[in-house]
Fold this sequence. Notes:
The structure holds two protein chains of two kinds.
Chain A: H1 8-26, H2 29-59, H3 64-87, H4 96-102, H5 109-143, H6 150-174, H7 183-199, H8 221-233, H9 240-263, H10 269-283, H11 300-314, H12 317-337, H13 340-343, H14 347-362, H15 372-376, H16 382-416, H17 422-450, H18 455-460, H19 466-492, H20 496-499, H21 504-536
Helix pairs in contact in A: 1-5, 2-5, 2-12, 2-19, 3-6, 3-7, 3-8, 5-6, 6-8, 6-9, 8-9, 11-16, 12-16, 14-16, 14-17, 16-17, 16-21, 17-19, 17-21, 19-21
Chain B: E1 4-13, E2 16-26, E3 31-35, H1 42-50, E4 57-62, E5 65-66, H2 71-76, E6 78-81, H3 93-103, H4 108-121, H5 137-149, E7 155-159, H6 167-182, E8 186-190, H7 194-200, E9 203-208, E10 211-216, H8 218-225, H9 233-244
Parallel strand pairs in B: 3-8, 3-9, 6-7, 7-8
Antiparallel strand pairs in B: 1-2, 1-4, 4-5, 9-10
Helix pairs in contact in B: 3-4, 8-9
Amino acid sequence: xxxxxxxxxxxxxxxxxxxxxxxxxxxxxxxxxxxxxxxxxxxxxxxxxxxxxxxxxxxxxxxxxxxxxxxxxxxxxxxxxxxxxxxxxxxxxxxxxxxxxxxxxxxxxxxxxxxxxxxxxxxxxxxxxxxxxxxxxxxxxxxxxxxxxxxxxxxxxxxxxxxxxxxxxxxxxxxxxxxxxxxxxxxxxxxxxxxxxxxxxxxxxxxxxxxxxxxxxxxxxxxxxxxxxxxxxxxxxxxxxxxxxxxxxxxxxxxxxxxxxxxxxxxxxxxxxxxxxxxxxxxxxxxxxxxxxxxxxxxxxxxxxxxxxxxxxxxxxxxxxxxxxxxxxxxxxxxxxxxxxxxxxxxxxxxxxxxxxxxxxxxxxxxxxxxxxxxxxxxxxxxxxxxxxxxxxxxxxxxxxxxxxxxxxxxxxxxxxxxxxxxxxxxxxxxxxxxxxxxxxxxxxxxxxxxxxxxxxxxxxxxxxxxxxxxxxxxxxxxxxxxxxxxxxxxxxxxxxxxxxxxxxxxxxxxxxxxxxxxxxxxxxxxxxxxxxxxxxxxx
Amino acid sequence: xxxxxxxxxxxxxxxxxxxxxxxxxxxxxxxxxxxxxxxxxxxxxxxxxxxxxxxxxxxxxxxxxxxxxxxxxxxxxxxxxxxxxxxxxxxxxxxxxxxxxxxxxxxxxxxxxxxxxxxxxxxxxxxxxxxxxxxxxxxxxxxxxxxxxxxxxxxxxxxxxxxxxxxxxxxxxxxxxxxxxxxxxxxxxxxxxxxxxxxxxxxxxxxxxxxxxxxxxxxxxxxxxxxxxxxxxxxxxxxxxxxxx
Lengths: 540, 245
């Protein structure tokens, strides 16, 4: 039987059909709730971040040019991240079900690409637009310009994100061409190039630097978006330059889309094979002796801890932790430079919250649900096993977070040494680490009790049920309750000299010991309970 | 040499009765083939023996150690290969085996020798430094089999050990299971491959919907099923399980 060649209309129908069913699969009530939570979290983070930034720019008296540069830099980082994910083969996220059912169907690759773009666009709009709008509304309020200007600024940023996602998909599609063998070189060149162009305008901060370097970043969609959004929000009148920037941003969008459409003519399933092959290549690479798991002459529990360390290193969990800590450090130093710590004692709660949240996120990888049979069928004491795994996982977390807290804390303590209001600072710094440690213990406890109810596990899956949402809320509330005594102690520390008749150093030591003893006690209970849950649960 | 004794074992998952008062015994040095349709309760039974699941009622003793009362003592005697073994993919094969050997209490002095011997037995020497995650399914299955025997257990519990193996490796594993029996190990083997059970099992237990419906050697099962004297196990199995329906 002869089939008619599919018409362009048929192609659109298929694209909408695929996108509709993919969305149906994703947009469960639970997923929508997660989007709302995510947007709420992003708005809180943007509120803190932008207030810090505005306080910093006011303190150092830098103008709108600096805002544009900062936004351009931030967007350039996002662009670099998207390009890197493209090179790693994740530019077009495809599930096993897609491979098994869609790629084996007569649907043309271009239609699959189109449907993916459609779906990614819609989810990006749903997830990203409200927080972006909030950011620009805040900037417009700060600058005293029309609040309506936030809408075109948000739309420009949305267009940038869509362009970035399509570019990421283009990079992934290009892997099936002859570029793949030169991938590493290309990736490095492109990533370094984009990063360099994004960072170049920093030289404008140096007095007397050539002004023509300013628009260099506007070659990139990130720079164009920053110029358009900040310009609009600052109340700049429409000009030819602004119109040209908008036109160029559209050219980037249309160019990347046409490139993707062109490259998706061929079946790009092989791209997934390239990704697998790359992983396989990484997997079989030689491993240095320094990173090996050695057992000879080592105690059983030392081997358990070492095993956890090796797994964390090789699964790149440690690298992720280091990168996150670096970001946190930069943020904290800017926050400190903005003078917020000095002016507001409650801002220590923000340190505690921010640093502590790292502990909760870091707990997600520990459970290894499918592999627990190895441990459960051995004669190991499961309580002790959980405690040793915790030690292995919390050590790098604290090692990475300690410099962050010291960088912020030492100058502050130095300023206020001997004064009663130095107690909150003195206590907040170790407390930040204690909160992180307890949050991690709490994360491990909930992971062992509820399987998937750690933050990362839930957020990584689009198809979680509402029960998981409830568990997450429950976990967050319980974790907050667990750390509230530590946070409470920081809050009341300034009043303690009036309440406890001790001289400054013994008082500081007493507060520190009380906080530490609480942390130790609660951790011991959490970890032992985790071990008990693992023993009791039959689905692990 | 170890033995397994199961008495009136029941396991419920909510309203579902996975095992319904199962009683059976595996004598030292026996190779017992546990066969049954999908969902019959074979894996549940094995998971109770190795201490992953707890029985709703009844007792399981491994060489006299109750798996609920003295789990550590029982576990020391068992080597287990689950149906779909998930291994530490970020460790190399030798690292994984060292880790398993260590948690199974193999002395440092013996561990390296045993790992080298096991790798040789399963032809995995050239994969010693490869990450487990980079291996094929069949290779991973071999690693799981190796890990199960590192501590030289008296009892082997093998749940579908032939899954994902190519014909050549399957033939090797057939021979390996037989050799374990000859070495005096007690083997409880669950599989859908009835040829291996017919060829190597000293006794066969057929389980269906949580009940043991037949037990004995091939001859006695043939009589029970009222089949021809030269009937193969698959015919006997089909007859017995069809009769039940």
